Amino acid sequence: MTERDVTTVLLADDQALLRATFRMLLDTVPDLTVVGEAGDGAEACALARRLRPDVVVMDLRMPVLDGIAATARITRDPDLAHVRVLVLTTFETDELVVDALRAGASGFLGKGVDPAGLIAAIRTVAAGDRLLSPAATRALVERVLAEPGPSARPPNPGLADLTAREREVTILAARGLSNVEIGAALFISAATAKTHLARAMTKTGARDRAQLVVFAYEGGLVAGTR
User: Fold this and answer.
1) What is the dihedral of CA 133, 189, 128, 31, to 10 degrees?
2) Which one of 25, 69, 135, 205 has the fewest CB atoms closer than 10 angstroms to its CB?
3) Which DSSP symbol is given to 86?
4) CATH class label, 3-128
5) What stretch(es) of the chain map to CATH 1.10.10.10?
């Protein structure tokens, strides 16, 4: 296995025991390696800039700088464009999850996840192929974005530039379908579906699939969100 085949991970959580547990688990997986640990959001940002990990496993509630602010700093840093953030939360229905997705997180995971789920989630986020927990995320994003409040913002202007096919593919992605499922629904290949999604992300400025889904909900592309 070459270095390119190994996904590097930075663990950010104020609970040292949890970080140690995650490290012990991930260090047993050949294609994953933990390159650093951070006890607060500010340290997570500093280590992300220094270590350039593929994935940051980020707790939402941390001292000094919380996980949402840390996620925003990392995802908005052009030098860290390849870094993906997987946020951890005690409750998957926490409204902070939506704020984290808006900040650029690629997905979220409950802290009660089993070892296989954590490993799969890191691989998924690193690949940028599918939003985590699609059913739970769809319900959460739809509920929060449908509510008026200070966090509401205007639709992404790039949505207006999507072709009809790109809109179709984006809507299906927002409903939690994988590339294979999108292809089957539209009678195209999974590779073609992925290409359309990539073009939609370029037009909207979305750094990954998760952010594109948030833009789709904010823009009312998915029925019932506006």
Assistant:
1) 100
2) 135
3) E
4) alpha beta
5) 150-218
